[in-house]
Amino acid sequence: MDALKQELKENIIEQLNLEEFTVEDIDNDDALFGDGLGLDSIDALELIVMLDKDYGIKLTDPEKSKEIFQSINVLAAYITEHRTK
Amino acid sequence: MQNGTVICNGKEIVSADNEQGFSEFAKRVYKNQQWEYPKFFKMDRLSKLTFLTAEILLKELTISSEVKEQLAVVLSNKSASLDTDRKYQDSINSIENFYPSPAVFVYTLPNIGMGEVCIRHKIQGENAFFVFDDFNPLFLKHYAESLAQNNKATQVLCGWTEIDEKGYNSFLYLASPNGTLPHTEETIKKLYTQS
Questions:
Q1: Total tally of structural domains belonging to chain B
Q2: Do residues B101 and B93 touch, judged by C-beta distance below 8 A?
Q3: A58-79 per-position pLDDT tens digit
Q4: Interface residue A12 vs chain B (CB under 8 A)
Q5: Which domain holds residue B180?
Q6: What angle (nearest 5°) sits at the alpha carbon of residue B137, between those of residues B113 and B107?
Q7: Residue B94: its pLDDT value, please?
Q8: Which domains does chain A carry?
Q9: Given CB atoms, is A20 within the 8 Å cutoff of chain B?
Q10: H helices within chain B, ranges in order?
Q11: What CATH number has the domain bearing residue B74?
């Protein structure tokens, strides 16, 4: 699970172009949206594509994405349970 | 801004190795100016070029926030958003690897960079983006003056921001009733050529 969290942080920084952040800057419980990393709605869509591409998880319910993008901890737990690749 | 050099009002702001790619150069300019605007890193190449050029020019000018709010923006180029259109096309070419990127898609219009400038500076005036084969000073002159004559704007940020596989160049100027140079085709052309 720790390796997945590390991988998620690296992918989020790279794919969302968070140039000002390093992996060490992101705590596992930090809010990804709002006051945390300050991600926006386009970032949310990008994360949905990332889940599909990297882990074979298709999200169709926007409410569900709001729930699982809370933090790295929540996202990693969801991926572990639902990943198909 | 072109070939690794940024010049504003005749003064060199940044100069770098011409062999450096645009993305590296844009990052260098951003760091050099010590701006804090993380959204910059999310922009596509055309928006970065437009944003950096406007940012440097607007910093040089003394415009009140009220006037800035009413500022009109009229930009142009040759390749529209083809640079990013190609990148997006690459992400949807293969049915087996079909993962269109929303973050790339939102930049598949040439006027998005103009929007980034307007958001940053709270500009709410008229704006338009035109595509020409070449830099067209006469059109910019007529369009800016038409906005002024029709009371749509008192000051107009005009210019050209072009990027494609071969290179990049941008040139912006402010058309204003307080300007020190005549707003003629010849003057605009001369400034563009010198830049």
A1: 1
A2: no
A3: 998 878 888 899 999 999 999 9
A4: no
A5: 5-194
A6: 15
A7: 87
A8: 2-18+29-82 (1.10.1200.10)
A9: yes
A10: 22-33, 45-60, 65-69, 82-92, 102-105, 112-121, 137-149, 185-194
A11: 3.40.47.10
Tokens of B125: 């005036």
Q: Give dist(CA A20, CA A32) in Å, integer.
A: 15
The rounded distance, in Å, linking the Cα atoms of B133 and B121 is 29
* Most A CBs within 10 Å, among B101, B107, B108, B119, to test the A interface: B101
ipTM over 0.95: no
Amino acid sitting at position B39: K
CA A21 to chain centre: 14
Quick one: residue B91, left, alpha or beta (phi over 0 = left, psi -120 to 50 = alpha)? alpha
Backbone angles phi, psi at B173, to 5 degrees: -145, 160
B96 — contact with chain A (CB < 8 Å)? Answer: no
- Tens of pLDDT along chain B (195 residues) come to 998 999 999 999 988 876 778 999 999 999 988 888 989 999 999 999 999 999 999 999 988 889 999 999 999 999 999 999 999 999 899 888 888 999 999 999 999 999 999 999 999 999 999 999 999 999 999 999 999 999 999 999 999 999 998 899 999 999 999 889 999 999 999 999 986
Inter-residue contact B29 to B17 (CB < 8 Å): no
For tokens 């993962």, what's the residue? B99
pLDDT one-digit tens code per residue, A7-57: 999 999 999 988 888 999 999 999 998 777 888 889 999 999 999 999 999
- The minimal CB distance from B102 to the residues A17, A42, A53 is found for A42
